[in-house]
Write a structure and sequence with these properties.
single chain; mainly alpha; 1 helix; about 45% helix
Length: about 60
């Protein structure tokens, strides 16, 4: 087994470990950061929602 095999195996094990940690955090219910509804985000004003549609016709004249 050469050094390239060792590097490839290490990369695969790292990826598997990362995915396992994501699954574990999802299953255990551990939430950090935005989207956790903790109320600590710095959202000061609600974002204005603008809908895009056809232009309203003006009366002739």
């Amino acid at each position: 087994m050469g050094w390239q095999d060792i590097v490839a195996i290490a990369a695969v094990l790292g990826a598997v470990g990362y995915l396992a940690s994501l699954v574990w955090k999802g299953v255990s219910g551990e939430r950090k950061g935005c989207g956790s509804a903790c109320g600590k985000c710095s959202a000061s004003e609600p974002v204005e929602v603008v809908s895009i549609g056809p232009a309203k016709a003006s009366p002739p004249g």
